[in-house]
Amino acid sequence: MPLVVQKFGGTSVADPEKILAAARKAIRAQQEGKQVVVVVSAMGHNTDLLIDLARQVNDSPPAREMDMLLSTGEQVSVALMAMAVHSLGYSAVSLTGAQLGIQTDSAFTKARIRTISADRIQRLLSDGNIVIAAGFQGIDDDLNITTLGRGGSDTTAVALAAVLHADACEIHTDVDGVYTTDPRQLPEARQMSRISYDEMLELASLGAGVMHNRSIEFAKKYGVPIHVRSSFSDTRGTLIVTEGESPSSAVCGAAMTRDEARITIAGVPDEPGSSCEIFKLLAERKITVDMIVQNVGQENRADISFTVPKEELKKAAKAVREAVQIVGATGFTQDDEVSKISVVGLGMAEQTGVAEHMFRAIADAGINIQMITTSEIKLSVLVSRTEALAALRAVHQSFQLSRRPTDAVAWDVLPERMPTQADLEKLVADLRAADMEQLSLSDISLVDDQARITLLGVPDSPGLAADVFDAVAAQGIFVDMIVQSYDGFQGETGISFTIPRTQYAQCMEMMEELKSKFSVRRVQGSEDIAKLSVSGIGLRSHTSVAIGMFQVLAEAGINVEMINTSELRVNVVVESRAGQEALSWLRTRFADNLI
Ligand code: ADP
Ligand code: ASP
Ligand code: MG
To answer: Domain 254-401+442-593 classified CATH 3.90.1150.10?
Structure first.
């Protein structure tokens, strides 16, 4: 019998009428001959209200008690939803996370699912019930209630769809589907017919709050097709599947993370272990670090910039103050008025000039770029918060995201099937044997045919990055990694990028010529670099990977020259003669995580 998981978000169960409407949708699916599992969030803004309530009695409430409190939001919804189904003449049973058998680790407020036992759900379904599951919650080994992080009901839904081998996982929400960017920020955003797991994973992590990023990790790992659609109408929605909407588009969507903060540590001794020390201190305090940019320094000193969520700045600054002392850096600056704008697309890995295009769009809007980081399928820049929306609009417009791609895959092309029977058996065995959300890496590799170019003392003004990469693209030079750091001390920035080694001489010559035009103080480069990449799923939410890489390399006395991180991959650049040795250290360090 086909099985469908239907998830209803907060707005979709905000009042009794909406709960009844959701119950009708579930009943309709059952009448169509399907077994139905409904996952619900807390009603409306109940989770926010509970958080607010907690803060009124305690500035920093204990995380365990926070989970005890927040889980009640979903408990209210499941009971009401089950009652609604009964009132319409059908049977339903509501279950909390613990009753569902969702076992998690003990990381309160951001727990990861370890296992789910499907027996009870299956029994209830076989008896003809609609099963109403509380989203966002689980239970640890000591029977403590845990929650999965804000937006975590999506993850409950996809995880249940995976273990139950559902035919579909429908995410019913307050928009018609996944848009090219948040339609509440930019009304010109366009709804996509489909998007790939990889693109959605990046977008979700870069600010597209429509899906919880960890739900997409699950979906990709276990091949669950997701169907995002409106709770309030029957429009088609968006499929999240293996293949995206258009095979040829470089960019499929854009996202903004509004409330970011930047920290720049200046004068960090450029020697193995310095950055490791800094990030270890931050990791110990569970601070989420993003956009790490380490620029090749002057006089054996480097600048390290990174961003943290604005609300974590105070904690981060405290840790950084200690780190500055420990590593002997000169000092640090901070700015909590910044936002991150990103574009994402599988196609950008194959096309040149995408970065330059984005930088130009922002420059033409007269907006200064403070930091840049790139990876294979995403580009992120940091701008001042007051200019963030204008930057998002400029980028969205310039990549023509409002226009449907001409080669868009037709909607009636069915999503690929769920895993085959053999896949399913392996999957179930996997689930029994290991954590569902365990870090799994697909590859650790070394590329050593690249070179690095670094521009030092670059004026921090709008258009500079666009001009530089325009010139590089005009010469047909293929740029891979780009990082631009922020130098809060001298009002200058530094830009480093990697190119094929065969184009090194040409690029150096060109940069020397353009130095005075761009008012760049110094051009520096290295023909001998190696890029090491660790690939997998959800590497940013498993922050231990970047830290682990730093640690291993520091212990081996290998200096990290550049780094970039994304959901799918962490890349570091080291001297080429250290490449092979670094590779084997990394393979040893992550041996247990390789699949
Ligand atoms: P739910 O309560 O149903 O989980 P959320 O508020 O978590 O709903 O997610 C839906 C919201 O996500 C939308 O109202 C929209 O403002 C926001 N959003 C952000 N980025 C996107 C995007 N790219 N496409 C669609 N919605 C987006
Ligand atoms: N109620 C939780 C939240 O608001 C979980 C969710 O809605 O997905 O974050
Ligand atoms: Mg949500």
So the answer is: no
| CA distances from residue 410 to 75, 246, 344, 594 in whole angstroms, order as listed | 40, 10, 21, 36
Ligand 1 within 6 A of 178 CB? yes
**Fold that domain 3-245 belongs to in CATH:** Carbamate kinase (3.40.1160)
The amino acid at 125: L
CB 557 within 8 Å of CB 405: no
Reduced to 3 states, what is the DSSP secondary structure of residue 445? Answer: strand
DSSP one-letter code for 565 = E
> CB of 238 closer than 6 A to ligand 1?
no
Question: What would you report as the CA-atom Rg of the chain, rounded to the nearest whole angstrom?
Answer: 24
In sign, the C-alpha dihedral spanning 385, 386, 389, 394 is negative
Amino acid residing at 519: S
β-strand partners of 483 = 373, 496
CA distance 224 to 182: 24
What angle (nearest 5°) sits at the alpha carbon of residue 229, between those of residues 176 and 3? Answer: 175
Inter-residue contact 337 to 384 (CB < 8 Å): yes
Q: What is the DSSP letter of 250?
A: S
Strands annotated E in 174-318 = 194-196, 226-230, 238-241, 253-269, 290-298, 301-309
The C-alpha atoms of residue 241 and residue 219 are separated, in whole angstroms, by 8
* 418-466 pLDDT tens trace: 556 566 666 656 655 557 777 788 899 999 999 999 998 888 788 888 9
Expressed in angstroms and rounded, the spacing between residue 349 Cα and the centre of ligand 2 is 34
Closest CA to 229 of 175, 266, 272: 175
Give me the residue spans of the domains in the chain: 3-245, 254-401+442-593
pLDDT digits (tens, 9 = 90+) for 364-379: 999 999 999 988 899 9
CB of 48 closer than 6 angstroms to any ligand 1 atom? no
pTM: 0.92
Give backbone dihedrals phi and psi of 471, rounded to 5 degrees, phi first: -65, -40
Residue pair 350/377 in contact by the 8 Å Cβ criterion: no
Using alpha carbons, select from 267, 299, 272, 292 the residue that is nearest to residue 524. Answer: 299
**Tell me: the pLDDT tens digits for 173-223?**
999 999 999 999 999 999 999 999 999 999 999 999 999 999 998 899 888
- Kind plus residue range of the DSSP H or E element containing 469: helix 464-474
Q: Which two tokens stand for residue 197?
A: 């797991």
User: Closest Cα to atom 5, ligand 2: which residue?
Assistant: 151
Distances (CA, A) of 19 to 9, 24, 27, 352: 11, 9, 12, 49
Ligand nearest to the CA of 186: 1
Of the candidates 160, 163, 151, 167, which has an alpha carbon nearest to the alpha carbon of residue 227?
167
Helix (H, G, I), strand (E, B) or coil at 280: helix
Task: Select from 3, 58, 60 the least CA-distant residue to 26.
Answer: 3
SS3 assignment, position 14: coil
